[in-house]
């Protein structure tokens, strides 16, 4: 797991990398590299190296990333990014038996949005999303809404659906659960989502003056998808 011995999570990782046919391309915003409690290293430790490829950056041109460009043009490639154009992954998985490549953007919501819309390559693959019936177990980090998932959780759910194997999700989430448990035992607090805090009158930070950000908060309170 590449963590210090005192906080080692190796006992919670699978003894052997999971056997999967789906290949993940994790597009990681550079800011994620400096986060202490990031989840992508745990995800990579659960999968074979050739099934979890991590590319760090903000801009991805066809000239600089020819392999990624080829992947994006492959008809079997999917990109996990919610929106009006996205199909539920369960529906896609039911209709396809071919091994797929899935692209997942790793960053905050604003960082992911910036990467998705400013890189034309990422609008070539079929856009898919997860149904909003999963709750995040990454309880030591504040999420925008109750159904927002970390990159590791998105990958765990997506692989479970694509591989039609429920044990994959449990195996990948095991080190995340151990990480959260360890942090809570050593003084960390459970972080409720911003949606939960706003709805229950527990949000203790100053409200934003920016009208766009204020509108987003109003939509969270009113349970409107944003």
From TrEMBL:
Its Enzyme Commission number? Answer: 2.5.1.25
Q: Could you tell me which residue ranges the DTW domain spans?
A: 1-188
User: Residue span of the signal peptide, if any?
Assistant: none
InterPro entries reported for this sequence: DTW, DTWD2/TAPT
Q: Which reaction does it catalyse?
A: a uridine in tRNA + S-adenosyl-L-methionine = a 3-[(3S)-3-amino-3-carboxypropyl]uridine in tRNA + S-methyl-5'-thioadenosine + H(+)
The record's keywords, sorted A to Z, are: S-adenosyl-L-methionine, Transferase, tRNA processing
- Please give one Gene Ontology molecular function term for this protein: tRNA-uridine aminocarboxypropyltransferase activity
What is an annotated GO biological process for this record, any one? tRNA processing
State the family it belongs to: Belongs to the TDD superfamily. DTWD2 family.
The name of this protein is: tRNA-uridine aminocarboxypropyltransferase
Look up and give the organism this protein is from: Xiphorhynchus elegans
Question: Upper lineage ranks?
Answer: Eukaryota, Metazoa, Chordata, Craniata, Vertebrata
Gene name, please?
Answer: Dtwd2
């Amino acid at each position: 797991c590449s963590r210090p011995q005192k906080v080692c999570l190796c006992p919670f990782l699978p003894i052997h990398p999971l056997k999967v046919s789906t290949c993940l391309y994790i597009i990681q915003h550079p800011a994620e590299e400096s986060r202490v409690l990031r989840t992508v290293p745990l995800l990579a430790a659960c999968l074979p190296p050739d099934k979890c490829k991590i590319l760090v950056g903000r801009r991805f041109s066809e000239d600089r990333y020819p392999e990624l460009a080829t992947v994006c043009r492959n008809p079997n490639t999917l990109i996990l990014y919610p929106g009006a154009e996205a199909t539920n992954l369960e529906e896609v998985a039911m209709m396809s038996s071919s091994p797929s490549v899935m692209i997942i953007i790793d960053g905050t919501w604003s960082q992911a949005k910036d990467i998705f819309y400013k890189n034309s390559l990422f609008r070539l693959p079929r856009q898919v999303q997860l149904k909003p019936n999963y709750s995040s177990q990454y309880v030591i980090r504040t999420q925008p809404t109750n159904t927002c998932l970390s990159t590791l959780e998105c990958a765990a759910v997506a692989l479970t659906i694509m591989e039609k194997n429920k044990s994959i999700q449990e195996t990948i989430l095991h080190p995340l659960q151990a990480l959260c448990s360890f942090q809570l035992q050593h003084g960390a607090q459970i972080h409720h989502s911003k949606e939960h805090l706003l709805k229950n009158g527990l949000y203790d930070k100053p409200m934003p003056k920016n009208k766009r950000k204020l509108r987003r908060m109003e939509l969270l309170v009113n349970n409107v998808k944003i």
